[in-house]
């Protein structure tokens, strides 16, 4: 009897050291705090592929429906990023670039400049942009749009790179194998 319990203890100790299934990582902290990952569906078919490199260029060209709320497109990007992480896709396989242009360019503005342009409203996107950047997401804004807003580089968040033109950025990323997703 004592030998059986020792065997059970050894088996339990061995199981503790086994790697967990990818979707079990949901108990760990997600890379973008405050945003949930997609909810698992029983017997789901298409799930993140651990062998793929998710190279995605997100195209954001519209303003938020509500000036005081985080852009829904940014929230979807964070949810997608967290979903890939939750399912075990490694950070080096999550290559996201967010491209702001047209009306979306305002999300790249510092809070002071955003407030001055929007009747004293704070830029509600800054904290999420900073969290996504810290997690590894790259941000770009159209330089032509920045010129059109009549602001200089100091008006742009330090987390956001100013490129020549969104069309050049999106085309270059596509040619480098990024999938373009129009998120609004």
Structure write-up:
The chain has 184 residues and is of the alpha/beta class. It has a single domain, classed as 3-Layer(aba) Sandwich (Hypothetical Protein Ychn, Chain: A), CATH 3.40.1260.10. Helix content is 35%, strand content 15%. The protein contains six helices and five strands. It has a five-stranded parallel beta sheet, sandwiched between helices. It is globular and about 50 Å long. The N terminus is likely disordered.
Q: Would you summarize the structure shown here?
A:
This protein is of the alpha/beta class. 35% of the residues lie in helices and 15% in strands.
CATH topology: Hypothetical Protein Ychn, Chain: A
Distance between the termini: 66 Å
What fraction strand? 5-15%
Order of helices and strands: HEHEHHEHEHE
Features of the shown structure:
alpha/beta; Hypothetical Protein Ychn, Chain: A; 184 residues; 5-stranded parallel β-sheet
Topology, please?
Layout: H1 2-16, E1 54-60, H2 72-86, E2 94-100, H3 111-117, H4 126-135, E3 138-142, H5 143-149, E4 160-163, H6 166-175, E5 179-182
């Amino acid at each position: 009897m004592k030998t059986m319990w020792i065997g059970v203890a050894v088996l339990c100790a061995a199981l503790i050291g086994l790697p967990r299934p990818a979707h079990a990582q949901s108990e760990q902290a997600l890379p973008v705090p405050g945003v949930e990952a997609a909810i698992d569906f029983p017997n789901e078919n298409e799930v993140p592929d651990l062998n793929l490199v998710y190279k995605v260029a997100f195209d954001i060209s519209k303003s938020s429906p509500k000036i005081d709320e985080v852009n829904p497109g940014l929230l979807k990007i964070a949810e997608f990023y967290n979903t890939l992480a939750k399912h075990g896709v490694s950070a080096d396989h999550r290559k996201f670039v967010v491209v702001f242009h047209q009306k979306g360019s305002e999300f790249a503005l510092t809070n002071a400049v955003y407030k001055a342009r929007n009747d004293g409203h704070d830029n509600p996107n800054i904290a999420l942009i900073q969290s996504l950047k810290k997690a590894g997401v790259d941000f770009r804004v159209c330089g032509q749009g920045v010129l059109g807003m009549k602001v200089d580089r100091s008006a742009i968040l330090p987390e956001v790179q100013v490129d020549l033109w969104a069309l050049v950025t999106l085309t270059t990323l596509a040619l480098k194998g990024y999938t373009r997703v129009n998120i609004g």
